[in-house]
Amino acid sequence: MAPAASRAVVVALALLSSCRAIWASEYFSTLTLFNNELHKQGCSSLSEWEEYAADCESSILQLEDPDCEEGSNPPCESVFSLNAEKILNQAKLFIEQKKIPFPVENHNTNEELAIGYVLIGNGLYDEAIKHYSLLLQGDPELVSAIYGRGIAYGKKSLQILSPLGRISEALGDLTKAIQLQPSARLYRHRGTLLFISEDYVAAMEDFQQSLELKKNQPIAMLYKGLTFFHRGMLKEAIETFKEALKLKPDFIDAYKSLGQAYRELGDFESAMESFQKALMLNQNHIQSLQLRGMMLYHHGSLQEAIGNFKRCLQLEPYNEVCQYMKGLSHVAMGQFYEGIKAQTKYSRYLHSHLDIPVAEYNVDQDLPGNFKNHWAKNLPFLIEDYEEQPGLQPHIKDVLPQNFDSYSSDVQKLICTADHLGALMQYDTPGFLPNRRIHRAMGLATLEVMQAMHRTWSNSKVRVNGKTRQMQWRDMFDIAVKWRRGQIINIRYLAYFDNILDFIKDRILVYHGAYNPRGLVEVRQALENVNKVEDLLPIMKQFNSKTRDGFTVNSKVPSMKDLGKEYDGFTITITGDRVGNMLFSVETQTTEERTQQYQSEIESLYKDLTAKGKALMLSTELGDADAVCNLILSLVYYFCNLMPLSRGSSVVAYSVVMGALMASGKEVMGRIPKGKLVDFESMTTPSPDIFSKTAKHWMNLKSLPGWYQSLPSVAETFPSSRTMIEVLNTDSSSHCPKKS
């Protein structure tokens, strides 16, 4: 819990969002992968400047010399040394094969137009722009020249790897061409440029217009679906990808995009089916192998994921994503000799501690702060006084597969119970893929927290970091953290936009009530007509002269320890860009002072919880158990408001809640309701009391059955990293009873 760290989660309404791969990256942009694939095919970018798989792969646009063979003497002539005669010959061939878009009746003009397209086809974009500009001086309304110059501008921008470049000129030319002679092709090409510019709403409108003029365009339908995908409108994207497949049943990219959309929606089975269909059409389709492997990894099916990454690397040995994810999967399974290639530093540390009881060391304390800071931020490891981790030691063997039947019946019951408890923590909201491995890990964490808290309340000490002492609140969370390796920043908070909208309205009214009381009534009336987050920015510009490109509101968290005092909560920022897109971000900005405030609050609650927990061990009063429950939920309320937004910190917090409640004699029977997220629920709730009431309602607490007390000790059954990894690797699917 670095005191001066800052973490953020960004949610885009109409702007592509991405997050870096830290330990286990949760999200890779389909657009990024898509563009990378097109570059590999030899296209400067999106190949749909013509019909599907046309321009960038057309032999006509490559100016191949039929009399020239590779390695011949004299060598083949470079495209950059083409003489006028060859360019003219290729232009004539272009005309003969009727490849000129928007031809005119004058043959000489068509030849001039064709020369420009030959230049474009060979990457000579500056020459093409000059050529078309000269033509347009003579005839400003020559549609084919306007269109060709627009294509050259667009391809030149993409060639220099700039999303801006000269796309504005390209859009200008295409817009003028559309005004003079609207066509499906022109709308599709302008839509493609708008898509690259991340103006997804305008791009969608152009693709739709193109499809109305010419229905049978699978690639335009695919791009229309991608505009929905990048706006977070996954269900609309799925329906559009299906329409593309009706137009072209063997459309691999549509199956791949459909699979990714289902994966983002959290529908594992449908995503698997779509990726499988893409690979049936082309078993060597690298993107589908890569995306399916990543989905399997995040589903907890590590061995299957490795198979996909291996196949990917056979086809493309230097694929960084597949290499990284393959290493990640091996490390997660305890196969360090394979995984070490991808994750040297942390793999070495974990390998050297593989057989040491986890109660005897602490990763957080052993690794220096600079190391953790550089690791989390993907910075170079140029750190003074950093001691290199020891290399792999031959006497420490990799983790071997473990059979479920090799465990005793008591341990088998422990594992099955953990699987059930972990499943109760699964979010039922778009974007959260069920992960069986995480379910087991956090179920075991819950049981270990329960057992540790029970011992603490019974006046027993616990073994922490090689020492025996009284349990502290950090120890409670450290138990869960050791089972939940890594951190995942998750950007899927679309379900909370409506709640956040109401929250922002309230904060705006609080602000104007303090600084602009006379205009409060007018502001309130304007806000009543706002139904979408993106409508807030114009309202704020209207009533606050300081608002230009965006505004910020902050939440406040009330103190239970010091009544009347408030702590900084999270920050919401809404900004607009030049094309009308909105960026909506929710950040938790942590400073040392803020961290100390929250820790003081949590320590006060934990002290009270320990006292009441010990009293509960000697009491049978219902009110005592309810008081303990409220303290547990209040403690986690402050923890969630303190920590960065991530699925990691959220599931750790919930496992602590469940474990501590079980220690107090209460079993959680209910699942987290559809659309609810524990961390966001705590952050958007104005007080710990209200959060406690909300959480208890869905938890459906019942008395804990007595057999839980007879389960083996989690800490003693799985004392080391090796035994922990072994149990997470074990398949119990055919042994544990299914529970609703």
Automatic annotation (TrEMBL):
<dbReference type="InterPro" id="IPR019734">
    <property type="entry name" value="TPR_rpt"/>
</dbReference>
<feature type="signal peptide">
    <location>
        <begin position="1"/>
        <end position="24"/>
    </location>
</feature>
<dbReference type="Pfam" id="PF13414">
    <property type="entry name" value="TPR_11"/>
</dbReference>
<feature type="repeat" description="TPR">
    <location>
        <begin position="286"/>
        <end position="319"/>
    </location>
</feature>
<feature type="repeat" description="TPR">
    <location>
        <begin position="252"/>
        <end position="285"/>
    </location>
</feature>
<keyword id="KW-0802">TPR repeat</keyword>
<dbReference type="InterPro" id="IPR011990">
    <property type="entry name" value="TPR-like_helical_dom_sf"/>
</dbReference>
<feature type="repeat" description="TPR">
    <location>
        <begin position="184"/>
        <end position="217"/>
    </location>
</feature>
<keyword id="KW-0732">Signal</keyword>
<protein>
    <submittedName>
        <fullName>Uncharacterized protein</fullName>
    </submittedName>
</protein>
<feature type="repeat" description="TPR">
    <location>
        <begin position="218"/>
        <end position="251"/>
    </location>
</feature>
